Input
Amino acid sequence: IFMGNSRVSEHINPAIVDTIFETDSYLLTQDGQDLEFFYVKLKNYLAHNISPKELYCQFDLFIIKPRNDLYGFNNYSMFFYNDFMDLTLLSDREGFRNLYRYFPALAVSPRMLRKMLFNSEIPQEQHFLNTKGFVPDKAHPINFDNIFKGSYKINTNKIVFLDSIYDITRKYNIDLYLFNPPQTYFSYKNIINQEILEKIVLEKNIKYG
Output
């Protein structure tokens, strides 16, 4: 399983991965979310599905930036387990409603809810079992005049969720790998304090051993 935000869903194509490595892979993603959210999502996934042999977790600037809301929740992905998802751990997020504890489907937009209730509205080629979470139509051509420039503003409270993800993968005997989804050289060179991220990865690799 490849886990992360839109940088994973737009750049990792399970069909290609499976063809090359003879695997059966899926994407477990949510637009614009962070490590805390993915810890919750992974925990719920493992409660209702067979655990994967390997988990590739996105680890970059975009997943460790501070986030205190439920960004992208109107496109909440209900794929094959999320209707059971316990959102209690996210109750401190802006936009959270108590009803989401019991009826997560209420968090989605009416358009998305119709798609979930009436599966026939979803074109066959967009069904999850066909795409495995890949969203190629969201990818946009690179605009070299509008490359992101930013520094790693680390939220240390979020970093602990990396340890939590490691702990839960160890519990289920899953091999955990951290990876930085495809990124253009032009974007990479404009990110300030890149070495902070590299230092964290190195420390975690040593710790996780």
